[in-house]
Amino acid sequence: MSFLDFIFPKRCVNCKKQGEYLCQNCFIFLSFDVKNLCLVCDKPSFNNLTHPVCCRKYSIDGCFSALTYNKTTQKLIYNFKYKPYLKDLTTVLTDLFYESIIQNENLAKLMADGTPARNASLSSASVAGGWLVVPIPLSNSKLKKRGYNQSEILARELSKKFNLPFENILQRSKNTVSQVGLSNIKRKENIKDAFELNSSFIINHSSLKNASIFLVDDVVTTGSTLKEAAKVLKKNGVKRVIGLTLARD
Ligand SMILES: [Zn+2]
Ligand SMILES: [Zn+2]
Fold first, then answer.
1. Which ligand is nearest to the CA of 18?
2. Which listed ligand is nearest to 38 at the C-alpha?
3. Which ligand sits nearest to residue 16's alpha carbon?
4. 93 domain residue, yes or no
5. For residue 93, how far is its CA from the centre of ligand 1 (angstroms)?
6. The whole model's pTM is what?
7. Residue 188 lies in a domain
8. What's the rounded Cα separation, in Å, for the pair 247 and 77?
9. Are 61 and 50 in contact (CB under 8 A)?
10. pLDDT tens-digit map of 93-141
């Protein structure tokens, strides 16, 4: 038993039973999300891709969600987000994230196809057609308060599992209020122009040209955040942006 386990004994986030973060009984409440919806119109679409009629110049090309959103998923993600000492939760969640992608044949194939981009620096031409894994950034104030970006943790773990390069390409250009509880329209307004390319990341714009990006976030609700981030990436030459999220609320 580690010191941390002694201070914070492992309890199931759902039923509070002592022993593990998600007990055997509660594990059955989890299922992979197989709804396959277009992020723009919310209607069924092939493989979660944005319908051709819903696509605009800077639209996100699709959005995959790993788990069906329910009370158990909600509690798991909440604990992952706000209780950093529950380190094992990261393993539970990233394993589930990985498994759900593997189960999706087309997506898994797409991720496997991007493998050659590994070890390529962004300035090299070889990254042009390859996939990068990029997290949705937190605002500096939130990052200071929380100490970590949960989306970055997920993105880093996925990049390792799929052998794809991880890059912190985006940063917040303004502080936004929390999207929780805001209407669809308010969310859109709140997140508008909230992202820009990371300034500490010296980048030659042409090097992002034709790159493909898996954009990682924990939960997608209306999709305003992912859509806004995708817009910035595409304006900077990125060819494809596919969202990867743990769950769709
Ligand atoms: Zn339980
Ligand atoms: Zn659509």
1. 1
2. 2
3. 1
4. no
5. 15
6. 0.88
7. yes
8. 9
9. yes
10. 999 999 999 999 888 888 877 654 434 444 443 344 578 999 999 988 8
